[in-house]
Design brief:
single chain, binds phenylalanine, alpha+beta, 9 strands, 2 domains
Length: 340
C-alpha cells in the first residue's frame, strides 16, 4: 500500500470512528489513536522528512490537511458530545418545584385543622379574618379594652412580660382594638391566634393555647345577633344542632358580659364526665362591646353597637375530636398527631 493510499485509508477510518463514537472517553481514545504521540497520523508526519522533495510536497500536503481535518472533526464531535451530555444531565436532574408530591405523608395539626374550618365557616357568614402580633402592648391587651391601670381584672390573666415593657398577649381581644383602628363600621371579623398565660398547667390549662376572637359592629347589634351567630357557628362546626346558653360573666370590655356554654356533645346534654354532669360545656366569653371600648376605637357608641366573643380553640378541638388532655397539643408527640 502506497503512503498515499495509507493516508487515504486512515482518513476514512478515522472519520468513521469519529462518526460512531458516543462518549468523550471514546473520543479521547480515537484522538490518541490517530494524533497522539504514538498515533498513526503522527507517525506518518514524522516520516515525511525522509521522503523525496516531490513526495514531501504532495504527501506532506495530504498528511497535513488530514491532520487539520481530524483536529477540527474531533473538536466539533467533542462539542456535540458535550452538549448531549449536558442535555442528558439536565433531563436527569430536572427539578420541578411545582410538581405535586405523590406521597405527601404530612398533615395538619388538629389546631390548624379546626382553625381553618372555623375560618371557612365565618368567611361564609361574611366575616373577615384578621391577625395581630403575639407580642403586644399593654395598651392593646388591656388599656384600650377598658382595663384601667390599677384594674383588678388585670390579675384575671397572669401575664408574661418582656424586659422592655411589652407582653405576650393573654387573649386575642387586642385584635378587636386593631380591627377598630383599621376598619370603619359596619364590619365583622374573626381573629384566630396563639395566646399566652403564666399558668400552672394541668389537663385543662396550658401556658400557650389558641383562641378565636370575633367582633361584629353595626347599628342596632344586640344579644340576639350574638346568640344567632354562635348557634349557627357551633352547629356547623359540630355538624349537629347545638344549644347555646349565656350566663352572666365579667370582662371589662363587654357590657353585658357572658360566659357562653353549649350543650355537651359527648352526652347530648344528658350529663357525663366531660361536662361534669351538667350537660353544658363552657366555650368562652362574649358580650356586647363596652361603649368605652368603641369610643377608644374611634367608633361612636351612640350610633353603633357590637358583640364580641373569644373562644378557646383547644377546647373546641378537644370537643370535636374527643381529646381528653390539653397538654397533647403542644407536645409534638407523633403518636398523638398522626391520628388526625
Ligand atoms: N378575651 C376574653 C378571655 O380571654 C374572652 C372574651 C372575648 C370575652 C370577647 C368577651 C368578649 O377570657
Amino acid at each position: 500500500m502506497s503512503l498515499y493510499q495509507e493516508i487515504t485509508a486512515l482518513e476514512k477510518e478515522a472519520l468513521a470512528a469519529l462518526g460512531a463514537v458516543e462518549s468523550i472517553a471514546g473520543l479521547e481514545e480515537i484522538k490518541n489513536r490517530y494524533t497522539g504521540k504514538k498515533g498513526a497520523l503522527t507517525g506518518i508526519l514524522k516520516g515525511l522528512k525522509d521522503l523525496s522533495d516531490a513526495d514531501k510536497r504532495t504527501l506532506g500536503k495530504q498528511a497535513h490537511s488530514l491532520s487539520t481535518l481530524l483536529e477540527e472533526s474531533i473538536a466539533s464531535r467533542r462539542r456535540e458530545l458535550e452538549n448531549r451530555e449536558m442535555q442528558n444531565r439536565l433531563l436527569a436532574e430536572r427539578f420541578d418545584a411545582l410538581r405535586p408530591l405523590r406521597s405527601l405523608s404530612g398533615h395538619l395539626h388538629p389546631l390548624s385543622r379546626i382553625q381553618y374550618e372555623i375560618e371557612d365557616l365565618f368567611t361564609s357568614m361574611g366575616f373577615l379574618i384578621m391577625d395581630g402580633p403575639e407580642v403586644e402592648t399593654d395598651a392593646n391587651n388591656f388599656t384600650h379594652l377598658n382595663f384601667s391601670a390599677d384594674h383588678p381584672a388585670r390579675d384575671m390573666q397572669d401575664t408574661f412580660w418582656t424586659t422592655d415593657g411589652f407582653l405576650l398577649r393573654t387573649h386575642t381581644s387586642p385584635v378587636q382594638v386593631r380591627a377598630m383602628q383599621k376598619l370603619k363600621p359596619p364590619f365583622r371579623i374573626i381573629a384566630p391566634g396563639r395566646v399566652y398565660r403564666y399558668e400552672e398547667i394541668d389537663a385543662s390549662h396550658e401556658h400557650t393555647f389558641f383562641q378565636v376572637e370575633g367582633m361584629m359592629v353595626d347599628e342596632d347589634i344586640s344579644v340576639a345577633h350574638l346568640i344567632h351567630i354562635m348557634k349557627s357557628f357551633l352547629s356547623q362546626l359540630f355538624d349537629r344542632e347545638v344549644a347555646v346558653r349565656l350566663r352572666p360573666g365579667y370582662f371589662p370590655f363587654v357590657e353585658p358580659g357572658f360566659e357562653l356554654d353549649f350543650s355537651c356533645l359527648i352526652c347530648n346534654g344528658q350529663g357525663c364526665r366531660v361536662c361534669k354532669q351538667s350537660g353544658w360545656v363552657e366555650s368562652g366569653g362574649s358580650g356586647l362591646v363596652h361603649p368605652e371600648v368603641l369610643r377608644a376605637g374611634g367608633i361612636d357608641p351612640d350610633r353603633f353597637s357590637g358583640f364580641a366573643f373569644g373562644f378557646g380553640l383547644n377546647r373546641l378541638a378537644m370537643m370535636k375530636y374527643g381529646i381528653e388532655d390539653i397538654r397533647h397539643f403542644m407536645q409534638g408527640n407523633l403518636r398523638f398527631l398522626e391520628q388526625f
